[in-house]
């Protein structure tokens, strides 16, 4: 574990509540016609980068890092997963994050990737945060996508179900789906008081300003707002994680990979991240301590800029 410098670095000025100039926001049509909201920034002299957010995320949360990599020469593409952000909803309640089958997201990614690669010259690198990291690793294991390098940031390779053990949480989710409540929210997400907002913020990031940016974007564009997942999402997540951990194809992945995690992560399992990393023959692992919560790329600058430095150094070596 690398210690933070005694002099905390500071990010250069960036308006996190505005779209960077020169970008293009549009929609990409999946094979079944479903529109996925897409954003592109950067001219690509360094190569092509695909950035994938986590459950409940939208492109807006990652504009700061998208701009960082665009400034380094990457042509950066990001998109909202089907059923969240600006890519519509899959159930009547617009605040419920639902998916019938995680395989649908793998199919979307597998179809989008060739179009993304056709936009310019390589190298081609993919980065996924949380659920996006899980889906990226699963797609690589299933040979659904290919990349010259991959970065997994706090990947969802195990869910933190505390205080319940994993088997109990998965059994409850399965039961709720069987009795017809699969499309209902698995829990409530109250943010009506400052105390409730602070509790949620601390699970995500130590940076109240970047957390406030998320709330600002959600209030400005209500169509991107999303609340808790459905019970079916929870059941699918447990099932997909368990199947991926059993998948012997992991050891055959040849893509150079950097994995970043946090030992104090309260949403995904740091122990699972370590187990997966040990099985991936071309993976480098860095685990932050209590200085980082789940959203490493939206943390205070000491962690966030260190993570960007590590990612940039890795890509400079692995994706030439």
Helix and strand arrangement:
Elements: E1 24-29, E2 35-41, E3 47-52, H1 63-71, E4 74-79, H2 102-117, E5 124-129, H3 131-141, E6 149-153, H4 166-178, H5 194-204, H6 208-220, H7 231-246, E7 257-262, H8 270-279, E8 283-288, H9 301-318
Parallel strand pairs: 3-4, 3-5, 5-6, 6-7, 7-8
Antiparallel strand pairs: 1-2, 2-4
Helix pairs in contact: 2-3, 4-7
Write structural notes for this entry.
The chain is α/β, with parallel strands linked by helices. It has one domain: Rossmann fold (3-Layer(aba) Sandwich), CATH 3.40.50.1820. An 8-stranded mixed sheet has the order 1-2-4-3-5-6-7-8, sandwiched between helices. Helix 1 links the parallel strand 3 and strand 4. Helix 4 packs across helix 7. The longest helix has 18 residues. The radius of gyration is 18 Å and the shape is globular. The two termini are 26 Å apart.
